Amino acid sequence: MVKRQLIMEKALELFAKQGFEATSVQQITDYCGISKGAFYLSFKSKDELIIALIDHFMMQIISDIDYLVITSKVEELLYDFYYAIYHTFQKHSDFAKVFMKEQSQTINKELILKMKYYDKLMEDSILSMIERLYGNEVNETKYDLIYCIKGFMNTYTHLFLFHDFPLDLKLLSKSLADKTNVLAHHSTLPFVSKELFHTMEPMNEKITKEQLLETIEQKIGEMKESIEKESLTLLKQQLQEPIYSLAIVKGLLENIRNHPHCKWVSYLLRRFYGF
């Protein structure tokens, strides 16, 4: 196992038991069976490790949800959305517990900004889902609906993360899809306006072509020879000098979408190209 990955996995187990603040670098290195020097070769600080964990988890879930919103059948989209959210939180319950606790307790400025950034990306995916599902019917209430859906996600997650509530994923997903449809079709008095929603956007949200190229170059260096690596190399060349049609670009993105090193790059490229 790569040492950086080992540190992240073992640290997460400690964070889930003790929280971020109560867990020291010494405890992490002892638990991993490595020296402090080995730790600092992978991470400059505990805060950098925490950010890496948040990046890893949120990049996975946001890229998956965004793809689901684009590709699921409309009649199944709400159910698929809620099921994917809760299945992911159930699968990664250790991280989910830490993440949700730290959102309410952290005073780390970088961590707060990171959480706001990913929260906004999730809101964008939810808004796309709402517009695909209900169209002009919810023009006045769609921004309120975003916060209603986020409220469902947060509140019901607490039931099984912190109260050991029995979880029937299928029933929960159907129930929340039903509640969301009721709100969408019958709610008439909005609170959150378009203007208010956009005032809460974080600064520097859009990634530049240069940042994309840097990210792709890093991922290429981490990968073994494969169809995914070849596709990622072609996508890098496309950014530098466009020669392929959008249909070919979409095909290359589909090639890399499920590779663990490429999932986030695929998401960023879809946003960059407007897919």
Automatic annotation (TrEMBL):
**Annotation: DNA-binding region:** 24-43
Residue ranges of every copy of the HTH tetR-type domain listed in the record: 1-61
Provide this UniProt record's keywords sorted from A to Z: DNA-binding, Repressor
Keyword hit for DNA-binding = yes
Protein name according to UniProt: TetR/AcrR family transcriptional regulator
One Pfam family from the UniProt entry? TetR_N
According to its UniProt entry, this protein's organism is: Bacillus xiapuensis
